[in-house]
Amino acid sequence: MRPILLSGHERSLNQIKFNRDGDLLFSVAKDKIVCAWWSANGERLGTYNGHQGAIWTVDVSPNTVLLATGSADNTVRLWNVKTGECLKVWDFPTAVKRVEFAPDGSKLLAVTEKRMGFLGTIVVFDIKYGEEPREQMVDQVEEPNLRITCTESKATVAGWSYLGKYIIAGHEDGSISQYDAKTGDQLENVQAHEFDHQINDLNFSADRTYFITASKDKSAKLMSSRNLAIMKTYVADTPLNTAVITPKKDYVILGGGQAAMDVTTTSARQGKFEARFYHKIFEDEIGRVRGHFGPLNTIHIHPNGTAYASGGEDGYVRVHHFDKSYFDFLYEVEREQLKK
Amino acid sequence: MSRLGNRADWADDEEFDDPSALPAQQVTTNKDGTKTVVSYRFNDDGKKVKVTRRIKTTVVREHVNPQVAERRGWSKFGLEKGHAAGPSFDTTSVGENIIFRPSVNWKAQAKEEEKGGEKGGMKDQLKDKKVKCRICSGEHFTARCPFKDTMAPVEETVGAGIDGGEDGPSAGALGGGTASYVPPHLRKGAGAAGEKMGGKYEKDDLATLRVTNVSELAEEQEIRDLFERFGRVTRVFLARDRETQRAKGFAFISFADRSDAARACEKMDGFGYRHLILRVEFAKRST
């Protein structure tokens, strides 16, 4: 496969996201712009300008009408995907590390940083979708309808479970917790990863009944949304920044590498800057894709499972459209099962 | 424009009286759904060329999500505002091809690739190679072939004659024991003769005569006739100039038998041929 290199950012990538149809790809980096790309050919559709600091996170609504971004300038911004104009700015006391739309797009959660005496919080906004004219889209709520405060350990990542029933959050201390999305009560808390090893990424399966976590403790775990049971563990030899579950094939893709601050002392080969493919069920590593010059900060998969994109500390986004060999690969037992 | 200018009279229509006019393109539809298009054109030499093309038309129908199709029509905004459609070179490029083939024992394979390198590969390649005689294709070395003296090798390979016995299982000395390069003439079994142009013939150097002072107009057949009187001649080589194809003035004649060669050498030395006196001697090995 020939990757498409997207070099629209000047600094390291923080998050990339495909929209639900997979035709658009959104990327945010430590520079202040958000880029939208056509995933098929890597053409840049446009940029969303307005943030004043590094952008940590991006998410697009399921109908690809609204785009939300969270930034180190202490704001969450809502954008019109089509025109690139900023529709709404929510201000916070601290940086925003994660935003995510609920599966039906009616809510947006944002994870705020713990800093300067403020505790880390998870806030939820109701989102309204007026069709054009613009005035209706601009009309959004001012205050969150739910605020979860993380008193023990700040949340680093969070997302919605199936049907938007729970909010699942990953914490700085390596634990995963489950909140009721309506009341904000904490239902479960599981020390899934080693203590004090931050959860760097959390991505759901297509139906959101289970998710994968990537942690600094060099492992990724597949967990159930319902009861936070650990179903699978994928062990890597490097701290992990990101992990995704691939639809269509039973794989997971992990990305990581030497921490950014140590990069200059290692060569690209030793740095382990490769996307690692593991079999989701057998937990075996089945291959790697190299190409980045720095650690992989973020990976996202096309919703049809035909392509994946990775963003690295090197400032590049690489979009890979899978070859036939990717789809053909089967374990012996899988093949036998198919014959029956 | 020039066509119009050339035409003096509107009445003499080029289409009719110009013999160089090209026949019209013909399109025929075949039974299997393909089309045959016959067209004519002039090539660079001004000759008429008939071009026949068979064209198969396949209609690929693709279903696109209407929302995706609608989005395709969006105009660019932000930093891209006003830019033409299509990826621009400063933001989008294509990386080099990555071969990604998932496999169960990926780790073991990756290690092998790193370690094994060329050596392992060569060994693997030769592992199931069998000894094959170049003369009779039997499973023995060429040197041991029972038909060695009676048959010529199946296919002539330059320089293969001499070290024929040794290559095969150990791959000569290509990579056998040591990794360092061994020039061909120093390889095991290469003998002093080395491998030179002429290959397999060099082995009967003992029965080869060198004839010099041969006329420029000499023909190989004439020389063969001259020497065939003394015995069976296996080969005649008359050196020719590459460009003019004229003889260069020397030739080699190989006999099947050395005694025949000796006799020929004795008799033909000083023989007058085409106004020139031949000088015949046993060919020396060039070292």
Written description of the protein model:
- The complex is a heterodimer of chains A (340) and B (287).
- Chain A is mainly beta.
- Chain A has one domain (4-339): Methylamine Dehydrogenase, Chain H (7 Propeller), CATH 2.130.10.10.
- In chain A, 5% of the residues lie in helices and 46% in strands.
- Chain A has helices at residues 134-138, 324-328, 332-339; strands at 4-6, 13-18, 24-29, 34-38, 44-48, 55-60, 66-71, 75-80, 86-91, 96-101, 107-112, 120-126, 146-150, 155-160, 166-171, 176-180, 186-190, 199-204, 210-215, 219-224, 230-235, 240-245, 251-256, 275-279, 285-289, 296-301, 307-312, 317-321.
- A four-stranded antiparallel beta sheet of chain A has the order 1-28-27-26, with no helix packed on it.
- In chain A, β6 (55-60) and β7 form a beta hairpin.
- The model of chain A has no long low-confidence stretch (mean pLDDT 89).
- Chain B is an alpha+beta fold and 287 residues long.
- Chain B folds into three domains: 2-55, no CATH class; 117-195, no CATH class; 201-282, Alpha-Beta Plaits, CATH 3.30.70.
- Helix content of chain B is 20%, strand content 18%.
- In chain B, the strands form three sheets. Chain B has a four-stranded antiparallel beta sheet, with helices on one face.
- In chain B, a hairpin with a 6-residue loop joins β6 (233-240) and β7 (247-255).
- The radius of gyration of chain B is 35 Å and the shape is elongated.
- Mean pLDDT of chain B is 73; it is low at 155-177, 191-196 and 198-202.
- At the A-B interface, β1, β5 and β25 of A face α3, β4 and α4 of B.
